[in-house]
Amino acid sequence: MSTATLIPEWAEQTATLIAWPYPESDFQPWLAAVEQTYTHIGAEIARRETLIVACCDAAHRARIAAMLAGRGVDTGRVHYAILPYEDVWVRDTAPLSVATPEGGRKLLDFRFNGWGGKYGHGADAALARNLYATGLLGDIPLAGVDFVLEGGSVESDGLGTVLTTTRCLLNPNRNPSLDQARIEARLREYLGAERVLWLEHGHAEGDDTDAHIDTLARFCTPDTLAYTAVENPEDPLYPEFQRMAAQLATFTTYSGTAYRLVPLPIPQPIHSEAGDRLPATYANFLIINGAVLVPTYNDPADAIALERLAGCFPGREVVGIDCVPLIRQYGSLHCMTMQFPL
Question: pTM for this one?
């Protein structure tokens, strides 16, 4: 009997967290454009649920409040948490929400090690505890877990299936003392994974998370997976993503039937100033109350991705948001948000 189950993203939510970029952050060269993207995302969230904004200090808070007010955001829907953070990618540093067998909720604070020791992470590793200490998450209990895991590396159907990648969770830079069987045991213990679907292929060029699942394949319902598709044989990513699509076709749902697979075409390559390809995919969407926020990249594929995701989420508004500024730092819309269910 599992102790808890990772709550799927489509569950009704109380709030969504974002951490606002600041002038001293890695976003400094593009800060004005990034703040416009943040303001748009924050406004869409606040229309439908509480928006929690992590910020650095009182002056930062006042600046953010002015920008949100300029977008017409109801100030009563926005709560601020002044706390330290290095990166804005709260998908991987905020606590994960699980449902207990008794019908309650619990927050899990997994260890964060800077995506396998790639970056400094002292403040980010403490973000979940510092956020909880503000009281903004209410009286839901928080438990620390001595296991390295980022929220962007796991997907849940809410029924006992966890979808993840071997490249990330089996990477020795995360939990080097644990083999696959022991990692599956941890996923069963903490996230209620009665079964784990291990995706062995797919890696967006420029992705420094070691192939987080939220750039590759996402549950839209317990029997629908939307996934990043590379359809141009001239694209260097084509062979690997063809193998990924083939493996997804072999997966079955919790009840044993084939998944409905919805391909999301990858946009044309976006490059950094140094010429490196950035990991832009449409799979990095966010499900919130009544809507799905989808990253767009000023690309003809935007319209195709929006249309296909609209077919996956009847009854929810599908909102495209320009995330080219975000991808400059190798993340997108899902990476910079974390939802908290009721």
Answer: 0.97
